[in-house]
Amino acid sequence: MAEIVSFRKDPDRADGLLLRSLRDGVLRLVLNDPPANALSIALLEALMAELEKAGSDVDVRVVVIASTGSVFSAGHDLKELTAHRVDEDQGAAFFEKSFRLCADLMLKITHLPKPVIAQIDGLATAAGCQLVASCDLAICTDTSTFCTPGVNIGLFCSTPMVAVTRAAHRKQAMEMLLTGETIDASTAKDFGLVNRIVPKQYLAQVVAKYAAVIAGKSPLTLKIGKEAFYRQLDLPVEAAYDYASKVMVESMLTRDAQEGIGAFLGKRKPEWKGE
């Protein structure tokens, strides 16, 4: 059963901006503010709160971020931002709060000790594309589209650029940022933004399979591995090998590594303890 998270942009709404469900170690967080699923302050705060709890929840092994409607996310709520231009500082403080909170959310995904999968069915644009690029894995339908269109409205997608340039190839990322044009799912896969493209009717099934496979691994191994993956990316190759070698040694000394190797040699299923 989906649980409605109580964060609401409009207190008169009967439903929440974010739907939450947890089953078999997989936490599903569904953006629920159609038609745009814009990343308003309220929705950003809701996602941050859920990810914060998920980080220390032993029952959560994998997080899936999905959405309702035909748009995965249109990015920042431009109406919300524009409304603050009448503030005394012309909105500067609110703009800073919005962009900082969004950046913190993307960093939270990267630093979360659990894998995060984006399930995309529809358009992911601007900060919505940034959200896709920030997730560890991304699986989309064959009709999904992606763009960083800020240049079209005089607002270069500078913060989405951080995630997109770390997920896509450099020149392809620049193509998206400079033209603001929408790319289809096949191009997004070629660029490196998504892992898999599936027909719409199979999206939930494929994501569930990926999540179940990952959820069956040692949670400690996943935590160590995800942290090491992102840390070594920013190191020169020699330093990356030095760091990775130390991680391997530390990992070998964990109980789960001992159990996993013993199970492999003994041809049995491992019993993970997360230690």
UniProtKB/TrEMBL annotation:
<protein>
    <recommendedName>
        <fullName>Enoyl-CoA hydratase domain-containing protein 3, mitochondrial</fullName>
    </recommendedName>
</protein>
<keyword id="KW-0443">Lipid metabolism</keyword>
<comment type="function">
    <text>May play a role in fatty acid biosynthesis and insulin sensitivity.</text>
</comment>
<dbReference type="GO" id="GO:0016836">
    <property type="term" value="F:hydro-lyase activity"/>
</dbReference>
<dbReference type="GO" id="GO:0006631">
    <property type="term" value="P:fatty acid metabolic process"/>
</dbReference>
<comment type="similarity">
    <text>Belongs to the enoyl-CoA hydratase/isomerase family.</text>
</comment>
<dbReference type="InterPro" id="IPR029045">
    <property type="entry name" value="ClpP/crotonase-like_dom_sf"/>
</dbReference>
<keyword id="KW-0456">Lyase</keyword>
<dbReference type="InterPro" id="IPR001753">
    <property type="entry name" value="Enoyl-CoA_hydra/iso"/>
</dbReference>
<dbReference type="InterPro" id="IPR014748">
    <property type="entry name" value="Enoyl-CoA_hydra_C"/>
</dbReference>
<dbReference type="InterPro" id="IPR052377">
    <property type="entry name" value="Mitochondrial_ECH-domain"/>
</dbReference>
<keyword id="KW-0276">Fatty acid metabolism</keyword>
<dbReference type="Pfam" id="PF00378">
    <property type="entry name" value="ECH_1"/>
</dbReference>
<keyword id="KW-0809">Transit peptide</keyword>
